[in-house]
Amino acid sequence: MLRCGYALFWLLGSVLLICVVSPVKGEAVVTREGSHLKLSESSHSNESQHGHSSNITGIPIISFKWHHVETPYLVAFWVLVSFLGKLVIEANHHVTSVIPESALLICFGFILGGMIWAADKVQTFRLTPTVFFFYLLPQVILDAGYHMPNKLFFTNLGGILVHAVIGTCWNAASLGLSLWGCQMGGAMGDLDIGLLQYLLFGSLMAAVDPVAVIAVFEQVHVNDVLFIMVFGESLLNDGVTVVLFNVFDAFVSLGGPKIDAAEIIKGIVSFFVVAFGGSLVGLVFGLLISLLTRCTKNIQIIEPGFIFVLGYLSYLTAEMLSLSAILSIVFCGMCCQKYINANMDENSVQTVRYAMKAFANGSETIIFVFLGISAIDKVIWVWNTGFILLTLLFVLVYRFIGVFFLTWILNRYRLVPLEFVDQVIMSYGGLRGAVAYGLAVMLDENKIKEKNLMVCTTLIVVYFTVILQGITMKPLVMWLKVKRAAVTEVSLLEKLTNKMFNHTLVAIEDISGQIGHNYMRSKWKYFEENWMSWILMKPSARKKQDQVFDVFHQLNLKDAMEYVTEGERRGSLEFVRNENSIIDFKKKSESESFDINNANMSNDHGAMSTTSRDPIPSVSLEMHEQIMKAVREAEAINAHHLLDQHLYKSRKQHRHRFSRSHFDINRDEKEVQEIFQRTMRNRLKSFTSAKMGVKPPKTIVKHTQKEQQQKMPNGKSMDKAKTSYSGDEGSEGDSASGYDQSYMRATYRAGAGIENPAFMPDLDPMDLLQIPPWLGESELDSSMVALSHRAQVDLPRTPSNLRRLAPLRISTRSTDSFTLENIPDTQQMDSDQLQPPPPPPRPPRDDGYV
Amino acid sequence: MGSSSSSRNKIPNAQELMRQTGFSSAHLLRLHDRFESLDRDNRGYLSPDDFEALGGLAMNPIGGRIIEAFFSSGQDTVDFSSFVRILAHFRPTDRNRNKEGTQQELPSSRTRKLKFAFQLYDLDRDGKISREELLQVLRAMLGLQVTEEQLQSIAERAIQEADLDKDDAISFDEFKKSLEKMDIDTKMSVSFLK
């Protein structure tokens, strides 16, 4: 163990400091380490006695306690080394586009292994079954299950199962029997392997490895059906492999003569128990996760933890019950994905996704690196040309035969048959990986004399499939012109039509009187929506599950992002201030106002369609852009100054910063309440002052609206704009009371970003006072009457547009108030629309006046 | 009655139908049985009521439209050959047959499938999916999950996506183009039992 540590330090030195590899005898390691790492001799002697320092004369100021931290240190260090390897490999895309990453990682492992070998002359690190099956594999598989395209998977479940069960059995049996036959025929010299041992070997070699398959196919982008066939098979055949392996292992222990029909039947029964039991455990845990995430409303930060912990527990539970652990964790992930994504907070969902990918990717990297490292070990290399080459040949040939035969049967029942090239890729994609290696290492040397030969052969098969087949996969896919996965953009019409097709197919199956796939699916969906969702989902999450709406939401988000990016690229968001956006407004509001029963609609429609349209389809952005514009116009410096001075200073702003359970800062009810009250007080004051003509007492708001208008260069026009706004040409008092209403609404809508909106209005008077430039100059030039028009034409529509996109709503100050106050206006303002496009609208400012 | 009709002779111009639709005679026989069991009064044709009697269709949000698709405009009955011709749209696309360049396009071809889907949207059969028509489909399928305003903006957006000539409606060509990448063959096919 000590030597491991030293070798490791040496590695650190050699990898990171790029030292020259110089083989030194094992005994010399200690001293060399000392020189490398500048360790004092005393610390060496200390730790060489496992920390029991016998000759300490005083209190050591520092002591070197390697054994104290050895294990976690090694783990962390290996993770780091693997990641660094990956980093280097991924740095060059020209290489990874030709050679798959998995192959490169294995080669990287070879190099590392070579270094360790050179240092120690013995392989101290290798992939042990315990580490692999308990710590590395579950993460990869959980990720696979969680990100499984469920619909695709279940649509092809029949084919996948046939390949996973029958195909794997076929592979195991044919390989075992053929090798045995060859040995009988004398093709591989003198080997002490019996028929049962051959079958055991066949069963461990039979399974297609999920890790290897993901790694290679991920980069090839074949079409969905092909991918799911290979990938699904690789996941589900685990049940078969485990059973076959256990059964033959037991048979080998029993010895040939003791095996009778009863044992064989037990073996077959155990297959069903293992496979279905494992899946069931997974389902139970999946439902448990869903239920738990349903109740995490108050402590959302731990949501992601549940998924990982319970997923891992499902794996361990299945392992404990000697059921198929892989199946368990796959089904756990598949079962819970829908519900947890709906139940959890958006941030948690992202966290889970990223963490899942990070873990899976890390595990995968480590697995491949260690597969490479394991190769550099003299002990396991027992060469037997006949055995190894024949195994390679049989593995490949029988895979092809199996796939073609099974697909031929399946194609008679498939709606869309798998094509010939698909079958070639499926056969060629039968990669063996770390699962086979892990099982081979688990063989008992006492029972199987040629264990090392088997391990060695397994490794060679793994290298052959992962490296050679992995590299040639892409060219082969290109050359055969396999249908690739279409890079689809999400399109609403497509999604909608898709949904319609589903309904149509169900209807057609109804009409043509057959209980088919679609019929079953619709029944399941019905059940799922009415029962499962009801139990497993938060009430609030249940509503938003429609796919079409999801796509709509996504598209809007995408637009918003593009929009901002584009704006920033051009330096500002000014480019949207064109006529189109105004016309677009009109049109949208028009389309909004029509009703189902409105028979005249088609006419209006035709008329509207003649107007040119804005290519930017996003709706809510208009509001946003106007806010942005206003900010820009209003001389940012002044605005900042004002904001600094007069914004409500949240006292508890930092309260939650160190909290482990909440990210949000300003969610305190009391604070919201306070803001509300202060605002109301101010409003009331301004109200009274407006009514009575009394100067208000000096408070936070030093200038009332009255004052503001008096001091304005030409008070009347602004006044007009404002009053026409509230649809009422009366006194300011009235308009002020109007505002009060709106503020009440805005504040009561407690939730998104209230703090600022409520206070904003107080700023505006100040704005007017202190920033004459944009008021006095730019505004005075343009006609003041036009302003009121603009206000009428543009603004009233934004809120309703905005409301369509609830998710995008930023802190849209007094949005609601606009809606309420101005919707009646919209109708009468329609006449204004026909006048020549007014100069750029500045609604947010008007907004401020309100 | 249904079980007795296992001879091909009972089906009028079976050869012709097989050629036009691509169904095998086994398929035709099965569908004929089905047709007869739907035709409860044994009239030799089906009326919309016969379809509506099917429980599943009543639950289907677009069941009404699909029933409508069986009845060419103006008629309220459908005989067996039309029935089969409509169902033929849902056969999986026959790759080999199309390559041979046979006399006519089978209903199961991609274009015909799309046309069928298009007509499910296009209620007034004017060759265009208008905003209102799209809205109706949306309303039927999304139901109460989404507010009316959201429905409208979804419809708006969907039209904008597909509408290339800016006439505020989706023509068949535009429809076809926007679904170019979709795997119609899988999504618009039912495996008919033999």
Automatic annotation (TrEMBL), chain A:
Stretch list, region Disordered: 702-739, 813-850
Topological category with respect to the lipid bilayer: Multi-pass membrane protein
Catalytic activity: Na(+)(in) + H(+)(out) = Na(+)(out) + H(+)(in)
Homology family: Belongs to the monovalent cation:proton antiporter 1 (CPA1) transporter (TC 2.A.36) family.
Domain Cation/H+ exchanger transmembrane residues, every copy: 81-479
InterPro entries reported in the protein's UniProt record: Cation/H_exchanger_CPA1, Cation/H_exchanger_TM, Na/H_exchanger_3/5, NaH_exchanger
Gene Ontology MF terms: potassium:proton antiporter activity; sodium:proton antiporter activity
Skewed-composition ranges (Polar residues): 813-834
Residues that span the membrane, as ranges: 73-89, 101-119, 153-173, 193-217, 224-248, 268-292, 321-340, 361-381, 387-408, 452-471
Keyword annotations of the record: Antiport, Cell membrane, Endosome, Ion transport, Membrane, Phosphoprotein, Signal, Sodium, Sodium transport, Transmembrane, Transmembrane helix, Transport
Superkingdom: Eukaryota
Location in or out of the cell: Apical cell membrane; Early endosome membrane; Recycling endosome membrane
Protein name: Sodium/hydrogen exchanger
Bias (Low complexity) ranges: 724-739
GO biological process, one term: regulation of intracellular pH
Recorded GO CC terms: brush border membrane; early endosome membrane; recycling endosome membrane
Protein function: Plasma membrane Na(+)/H(+) antiporter. Exchanges intracellular H(+) ions for extracellular Na(+) in 1:1 stoichiometry, playing a key role in salt and fluid absorption and pH homeostasis. Major apical Na(+)/H(+) exchanger in kidney and intestine playing an important role in renal and intestine Na(+) absorption and blood pressure regulation.
Signal peptide: 1-26
TrEMBL record, chain B:
GO biological process: protein transport
GO CC terms in record: cytoplasm; nucleus; plasma membrane
UniProt cross-references to InterPro entries, sorted A to Z: Calcineurin_B_homologous, EF-hand-dom_pair, EF_Hand_1_Ca_BS, EF_hand_dom
Domain EF-hand: 26-61, 109-144, 150-185
Stated name of the protein: Calcineurin-like EF-hand protein 2
Assigned protein family: Belongs to the calcineurin regulatory subunit family. CHP subfamily.
Main localisation: membrane
This protein's UniProt keywords: Calcium, Cell membrane, Cytoplasm, Lipoprotein, Membrane, Metal-binding, Myristate, Nucleus, Phosphoprotein, Protein transport, Repeat, Transport
